[in-house]
Amino acid sequence: MPSATYETALVELHHLGKGHSDSVNTISFSSDGTYLASGGDDRTLIIWNTVEGRLLYRLMFESSVDCVIWHPGRAGTVVVGCESGYLFQIYDLTQRSTQRYEIQLGILNTIHCLDYDKTTCSLAVGVGTDVYVIEETRQNVYEGAVMFSPPPELEGVEQEREDRMRPVGVHFGTNGEYLIASYLAHGIRCWDTSTRDVLWHVMPPAGYPSIGSSALSHDQSWLATYNVVNGVHLYSVTSPRKQPKVSRLLKLSTSPRTTHSVHLAFPNAGCSVTCGTTTGGVHVWNVLNGDTFQVLSHSSTSRPATDRSGYAYIATGSIDKGQSTYIKIWRAKIGYCRTYTSLSHDVLKTTCSSYWHS
User: Fold this and answer.
1) Which of 21, 32, 193, 322 could make an SS bond with 42 (beta carbons 3.0 to 4.6 A apart)?
2) Which residues of 201-234 are buried (b: 16+ CB within 10 A; e: fewer)?
C-alpha cells in the first residue's frame, strides 16, 4: 500500500475528575496505552485505566511528584521523580501493596526530567543543575551513576542566577548511543554516552533566551523546544554528530500569559507536535508544513500520548487547584503518516502539557 499523510481530529474521550487536588505536573501512558500515570503538587501518583477512565491506584509521597515515566521493558513499573530529590522505581502494583526501590544518584535535588533507554538499560535524570545517567544492572536495581559535563557559564550572568542552568528535558538517541539535554538558559547539549564527549552544543535563536521544555521525536529526526515567548522551535536532527539548526518556528495563536513552561511532544508517529499553553488549549501542528492542525479546549494543560489498536491517545492535565483539577483523555483514529504503513502498535511518545514552575 503506498504511503500517505493524513490526520483525524482528536475528540474528548474521558474527563477524569476527583483524582488530584492540586496542579497536575506530569502524565505518562503505559507502552500499550492501557494505563495512565499522573503526578501532581498534591504529592500523589495516580494510576488510571485509560479505556474505562477509572482511577485504579493512588500512592502518596513526601513532596510533589514532578515527573513520571513508564519503564519500557517491565510491565506495571514506573519511575517517579519528586521535588524533594527522591527518585523511585515503583513495581508490583496491587490493591494492597506496592514495591518501591529508591534510585540513589549521590545527589539530592529536585528531579526535573527523565528518560529511559531500553537497549542499554540506562536511566537519564535531570536533577538540580546536572544530568546523570545510571544503569539498571539487574531488575529494579540501579548502580553506577555518572554525571555528564555541564554547559559553560554564561558571560554576564550572576553566579546566583546559575540555577537557570537546570535541565528541562533529557532524551536518549538511537540505541542509547547519544544523549541530548535542553537547559532553561544554557541551550542544548549532546553527548556520546560511551565516551561522554560533547558532540555539539547550540544556543537558542536570538531573542529567545529560555527553553521551557523539549521533546525528541520517536525516530530522533526532530527536536522540539518550547521558547517561552511565542511557540515552538523545531530542529532538524540529521545526525547525532552534526549540530542541528532551527528548521521552523511553530507559533501559538495567542501569546503566553505567563513565563511558565509548558510541555510538548510528538504524537502520530512524529508527524505532529503538541504543546500546552498558559492561556488555555493544547496546540497540535503538522510537522511537515508547520500548519496548525487543531487546538484542544482546556483551561491549562499537561502530558503524553500513545497509540493502541489504531487509535492515538493524548492526555492533558490542568494546573488548577482543589476540585477543579482534572485530566482529559483525547482520542483520534489515525491512518498513515510519512512512509509508515501501519501504526496500530507504535508507541507515540507524546506530550502536551503545562509546567508548574516559572
Assistant:
1) 21
2) beebeeebebbbbbbbbbebebbbbbbbbebbbb
User: Among the listed ranges 194-198, 218-222, 351-355, which one has the minimum average pLDDT value?
Assistant: 351-355
| 3-class DSSP assignment, residue 289 | coil
Domain ranges for the chain: 11-155+162-354
Distances (CA, A) of 232 to 236, 256, 284: 13, 12, 11
Q: Rounded to whole angstroms, how far apart are CA atoms 312 and 62? A: 34
Q: Evaluate whether 317 touches 293 at the Cβ level (below 8 Å).
A: no
CA distance 238 to 222: 8
Choosing among 3.40.1190.10, 3.60.15.10, 2.60.40.150, 2.130.10.10, the CATH entry for 11-155+162-354 is 2.130.10.10
Q: Take residue 87 and report the three cell numbers written for it.
A: 527518585
For residue 259, what is its C-alpha cell? 513565563
pTM: 0.87
Identify the CA nearest to 214 among candidates 42, 349, 21, 19. 349
